[in-house]
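--- STAGE predict ---
source: upstream dedup step, 1 unique chain passed
mode: sequence only
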Amino acid sequence: KDSKENGEKYFSRINHEITRMERLVRDLLILARAGGDKLAPHEKQNLNLSKLLNELIEDFKITSPNHPIEIKIIENVNIAADEEFLTQLFTNLLSNIRIHTPDKTPVAITLYEYSKDVIITIEDGGPGLNDDLYSNEFRIFRRFNPLTKRSNTNSGLGLSIVKEIVNKHDGQIHARKSDLGGVAFDITLPK
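--- STAGE serialize ---
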């Protein structure tokens, strides 16, 4: 009986490590694909950003039902972008909230247009970051950031991927202390 239990325990551990390595390889491939040049015109498509965000918020509500969400998204905001990349970007930010904040942590997501840009803010009322990190965004977005808590299923590349995707879309991202108490990410993308 002991050897069967040990075998199941070892199999479970090996399976866990395989899953973790698959995620790491996937994240490295996304990072490699996102890095480098800006998107070429043929890589962009007309994307209803409002619809995409609303769909991802619905997914977040399913995986994080105890997080109250305030949503301020104007309808029918269209941009020229790569849908797969933007899905990954917003999924990474929302996953960070799910993983790194306690239940009942408030979340706010806004989307509005400003001149020739769109601005998306995703923020939470969680523990946030050390105050000195907000002034040093390089440390927030660098790969394998030792300053962020990572779970065993997390590659540590999420914010690096987010930064590369924003750069590839000729946009900007800034982290700041959220009015909710945690961290806010302000993303500006050209229409």
